[in-house]
Amino acid sequence: MTTPSTKKRVLSGMRPTGKLHLGNYVGALENWVRMQDQYECFFVIVDWHALTTDYADPSHLKENLVDVLLDWLAAGLDPAKCVMFIQSHVPTHAELHLLLSMITPVGWLERVPTYKEQKENIKAKDLDTYGFLGYPVLQSADILIYKADVVPVGEDQVAHVELTREIARRFNAFYPLGKEYFIDKHPSQLTQYERNFLIGQGREIPPDGAVVLHIGEPHPKYNRIYVFPEPQALLTPAPRLPGTDGRKMSKSYGNAVLLTDPEPVVRQKLKTMVTDPRRIKRTDPGDPDVCPVGDLHKIFSSKETMAKVYEGCRSAGIGCIECKSWAADALVKILNPMQERRKKYEDNPRLAWDILEAGSARAREVAGATMDEVRSAMGLDYRSSSGPAKGSTK
Ligand code: SF4
Questions:
Q1: Distance from residue 286's CA to the centre of ligand 1 (Å)
Q2: Are 44 and 86 in contact (CB under 8 A)?
Q3: Cβ of 313 below 6 Å from ligand 1
Q4: d(C-alpha 86, C-alpha 65), whole Å
Q5: Cβ(327) to ligand 1 under 6 A?
Q6: What is the band of 389 on the pLDDT scale with cuts at 50, 70, 90?
């Protein structure tokens, strides 16, 4: 049994899409590395989520999830500071998903913006499936089963956390774990228990007029009235990282710099990167504020380099090749230590699997405790009872 942490708890995850790129690092991983010092963090590789869109070919799942884990470790996630695990190694995610599915109105899911967007944009796959419609419920189960306080998200994911909050509220309303009731009476009619409860809660009892109060009595074993707290979305503003073609960096656009790219590959990719389109000749002045290479500098280069870029670009004092080589220097400086850390695990994959297995065991412990409460609140805990008495027909 692990000692409970006093830190707020964070849950976040990634699909096993294979090797990660700099956009993943800047958009999420870098923030996770910071968070592991401030929060009790659970980071999950959501392999079941991958199946909601890629169910037709799961053959790369295992290889992809190992690549994601290696990149997490390379980026600086530390198994001594956070829990890293695989979703499918904690089967209670599926149980909670099922139970939450029972209470989630279909209309809530059809309104999720990413559901509509992805159905419109991904034409190569048949997404008219029950699993795809329900993936935000699976995501809610992922979050709620750890009673996460905080979920770091980008803007496009805020709606998912809001849905999770609504599902938690609905579950708590249907299935309070302890006793709950409302008082709607004159203060003089309050029972002693109600008085004591209100005083114990630090509530003032008005001398006159009706009081409408919602009070409750925690479950004696779990000491809670409701199973689920409502998680907060933590918006993590991330700079837009351009790929080599100037669009947002994405593996599907083929414009990404991978965290595993060796130095010559990084330099080659940057050589082909688009620049300020007005800078046609070497003597034309340009503007780093409208150049994707300028955006890279803003994220990765030092102040001194930035000053040289602004001055040299606007005065046509430097060429784009030179400017790109400085950007490549900055990327290599960040990627080199990551690649060194990654190598340790590539050389000994057992180490990485041990981390996942230990993390999954810890996750099962926490998720199992929540599921005990869920089953108890729903009256589904009969499997742990001794069963009906002899001779009973019920
Ligand atoms: S000098 Fe640098 S910032 Fe200016 S256009 Fe060329 S690559 Fe872009």
A1: 6
A2: yes
A3: yes
A4: 8
A5: no
A6: very low
Hey, whose CA ends up nearest to atom 7 of ligand 1? 320
**CA–CA distance, 370 with 177 (Å, rounded to integer):** 11
Distance, CA 288 to ligand 1 centroid (Å)?
A: 6
What are the structure tokens assigned to 367, written together? Answer: 């998720």
For residue 215, what pLDDT band results from cuts at 50, 70 and 90?
A: low
pLDDT given for residue 178 in this prediction: 87
For 387, the 3-state DSSP assignment is: coil
Could you give the angle at the alpha carbon of 98 between the alpha carbons of 158 and 63, nearest 5°? 70
Asked if 316 and 285 touch (Cβ cutoff 8 Å), the reply is: yes
Work out the percent of the chain whose per-residue pLDDT is above 90: 73
CA dihedral 217, 218, 221, 227 (to 10 degrees): 140
Q: Does the C-beta of 335 come closer than 6 Å to ligand 1?
A: no
**CB 276 less than 6 A from any atom of ligand 1:** yes
Helix, strand, coil percentages in the chain from 3-state DSSP, rounded to 5? 55, 10, 35
Q: Above pLDDT 70, what percent of the chain?
A: 93
What one-letter code names the amino acid at 241? L
CA nearest ligand 1 atom 5, residue: 276
pTM of the complete model:
0.87
The CB of 320 under 6 Å from ligand 1? The reply is yes
Q: Which atom of ligand 1 is nearest to the CA of 320?
A: 6
Taking each helix axis from N to C terminus, what angle separates 320-347 and 303-314, rounded to the nearest 10 degrees? 150
**Within 10 Å of residue 282's Cβ, how many Cβ atoms?**
10
